[in-house]
Amino acid sequence: MNINTNANCGACGAPCSGEQTHANSVVDQSSGTFGTCISCGSLRVLDKIDYNALYSKRDSSNYPSAGNTILVNLKQWYLRRTAKSLVELIASPSAKILDYGCGGGEFSNAIHSLGFTSVYACDMQLDRPQTLSSDVQYSGIVDIANTGLFDIIVMRHVLEHIEYPQPILQRLACQLAPGGQILIEVPNSRSLFRKLLGSRWPGYFYPFHVHVFSEQGLSALANRCGLAVKAVTQCNSPIFGVFLMGLGIKRTYARTLSIFFYPGQCILNQLTNRQEAIRITLQKRWP
Ligand SMILES: [Zn+2]
């Protein structure tokens, strides 16, 4: 694999010529290389990857909503709880909400299930995901520009997949209604388990993740996009399902074990204040 040692940080634009980190692929036995930004500490892939070809073979949902009913119900409960903590606290029931990069639409469904009546979803595929509720409006990522302004735009585990995040975020900032907010959740470059699991840390999710952001990097990216940082917090998304599947354990077993590991993961992450994901809330800077 060719390495681009001149790659710049997707967050702050500085060179990613710092420490190199290797990550195991989640699709085959290969591995990739991330470089560390010398300014903000974010990481970005240095390998030259054809992302259009990569995503043409795959939708963006890690876990399709099928199979074991208990696991599906647990996932839906988790997403509902996440939607409550992410959206319900700040948005009125009539708020117009966009789930940008919705994958199979499970998180859009969770938002709608809380009583929000104006929920939109978009992703790369033109066809509406089969698992998306019929009450959620869907469009392809290009057409979303024609759906007007939004009070809330959610990008949950999306930004790390986008090769050039700045122009996308700038365009989305133009679709914010007055007082509107963009809510972003991404893997945390300071995660405790990044240190503990090494090249098998699921936050790398190589080759699908281009970036692993730091809090400082996300703030710099917001600044470059004309957005103000309203809040930065950390949260814990379960990681052991992907980790165990990387060890060759079957998906159903890996997901079941992940549920048992999750409380311990949360305790360790919170004790060290190095949780799995960063949440950042952005608002437009009005002149
Ligand atoms: Zn940077």
UniProtKB/TrEMBL annotation:
SUPFAM superfamilies named in the record: S-adenosyl-L-methionine-dependent methyltransferases
UniProt superkingdom: Bacteria
Alphabetized UniProt keyword annotations: Methyltransferase, Transferase
CDD domains from the UniProt entry: AdoMet_MTases
Gene3D superfamilies: Vaccinia Virus protein VP39
Record-level GO BP terms: methylation
InterPro entries xrefs: SAM-dependent_MTases_sf (IPR029063)
Signal peptide (UniProt feature, chain positions): none
GO molecular function, one term: methyltransferase activity
Name of one Pfam family that matches: Methyltransf_23
Protein name as catalogued: Methyltransferase type 11
Source species of the chain: Candidatus Gallionella acididurans
Organism phylogeny: Bacteria, Pseudomonadati, Pseudomonadota, Betaproteobacteria, Nitrosomonadales
